[in-house]
Known about the structure:
The chain has 604 residues and is an alpha/beta fold. The protein folds into four domains: 4-196, Rossmann fold (3-Layer(aba) Sandwich), CATH 3.40.50.300; 204-400, P-loop containing nucleotide triphosphate hydrolases (Rossmann fold, 3-Layer(aba) Sandwich); 401-506, Winged helix-like DNA-binding domain superfamily/Winged helix DNA-binding domain (Arc Repressor Mutant, subunit A, Orthogonal Bundle); 533-603, DNA polymerase, domain 1 (Orthogonal Bundle), CATH 1.10.150.80.
Amino acid sequence: xxxxxxxxxxxxxxxxxxxxxxxxxxxLVAGGDALVLMPTGGGKSxxxxxxxxxxxxxxxVVSPLIALMQDQVDALTALGVRAGFLNSTxxxxxxQAVEAAFLAGELDLLYLAPERLRVEATLRLLAKxxxxxxxxxxxxCVSQWGHDFRPxxxxxxGLHERWPGVPRIALTATATPATHAEISSRLxxxxxxxxxxxxxxxxxxxxxxxxxxxxxxxxxxxxxEHPGDAGIVYCLSRSSVEKIxxxxxxxxxxxxxxxxxxxxxxxxxxxxxxxxEDGLVVVATIAFGMGIDKPDVRFVAHLDLPKSVExxxxxxxxxxxDRLPATAWMAYGLQDVVQHRRLALEGDEAHRRRQVLHLDxxxxxxxxxxxxxxxxxxxxxxxxxxPCGNCxxxxxxxxxxxxxxxxxxxxxxxxxxxxxxxxxxxxxHIVDILLGKKTAxxxxxxxxxxxxxxxxxxxxxxxxxxxxxQLLAQGLLxxxxxxxxxxxxxxxxxxxxxRREVRLRRDAPRPARTRASGTSNGAGARPVVELPEEAVxxxxxxxxxxxxxxxxxxxxxxxxxHDATLREIATLxxxxxxxxxxxxxxxxNKLAKYGEQVLETIAS
Length: 604
Ligand code: ADP
Ligand code: ZN
């Protein structure tokens, strides 16, 4: 029987384990249970795939991501691993073939949707075969605090009673300390060993820009920093998804929409294109992306504020799984705060309280003058990290300033309009009053006679919007639910009464940044495979070969080889199968299958 490290080298073609992997794998091989918290791209899959190959029997993987099972199985098959799946997309014949293979002991890994395990027939089938382990992927789906709750996950606690001797491993990339505890108790893993890896994604550059003209800003970001790259643009509503996708396409950027309002076939087709083609942009609601393990997503852009830091971290975490530089970019402005403050007022009391906590954490992240990564890691329970050098606030630290007087001016304007609160006076109107603009609306309501009229000449229009946004973010100003009018809060009085100082962040102009492709950026970043100038033509030839091969076989390009592997091949330009076999990501099976073709491509 092979040892874990032999399996890693021979089957997967990697020479060493990543941090945490070896311990987890050995613990499982020895029959222990594990709960694994590891960031996206940390290499969770190997933590159950290798034990499943080392232990006798089939590893049963529970995953909610039905749409991706085919790709996962294809990727394993390309490595020479015997894998199959059972889910509702198959017809009877297909299912029967997989079941027969399982019963004959011919599967190393079997992927199942969680709802399958509620079906008695599935449980009976599993009882007739030999199981090496249960892996519960996306384990945060069992948590009700989170945003991906799936009731079927609650039934997974029963696995242990039915198969007490079979080790279980639960894995997730998003867990605050509270979610971690919830996963542990709901899945009955309190006795299991818990492995908590660092949550940092050092290759992701985080940036939050002040939103002014979102479409133009997005286009400029894509053109200047990610031309030809694959990425995801998240929007809140279906209609903005459609509009932005059309806008990008009109501007020569290949883009497709994805949201729950599209029919299933269109969604599946767009997802498949994203996985298979190079350089496609998907514009999507949060309906898109869970479990998408496309390694070369180079950017994730948010045009609207995510509802929680968990959501933000999970969505941005889809960028740069291959550990090459990637960008998490967000445009964020006053309207986001107004809209989310209003949304957070919906639902029952408990729901509202949760929404507000989530939103406050998200707003604090947007408004911080400190390192964004430090704040993110702190949120996920990793305290006291050092500033990263690879986020916007590290690279051009925003100034903070004493905004007490402007805050008082703005709040007292709101207070003076309070008597007329049935009217819809938005931020624009309040700023007009402060700036002394005699607009039709100002004159109509006689607001030019207010004592605050024209007292705000020290700041410009955009600055005043920034003040309002930050007061809302800090809870010193609120949105009234019915009309969306700004109103004072319990704490506004402290500011008006001079008992509380208000620190504000000066919105930095966009930092000039050149494309960080292939360079190690920032203190904490891991070195990446650099691509020397002279290797670029060969890299492009290899990419073209890969695209053609992937198309021929109907699999995503990365199933053939990852970008990082192609970069290394292009740089080393190996001239024999033995040399090629040493490249990271070239295992036994792929060497046999593609070795000759790769050498030919190099020689041509
Ligand atoms: P996760 O599920 O944690 O997001 P994956 O299991 O998809 O991450 O792994 C991310 C990438 O890292 C994959 O492309 C995988 O092949 C690669 N990888 C995992 N472990 C290793 C290793 N020990 N050496 C090199 N690459 C690895
Ligand atoms: Zn930083």
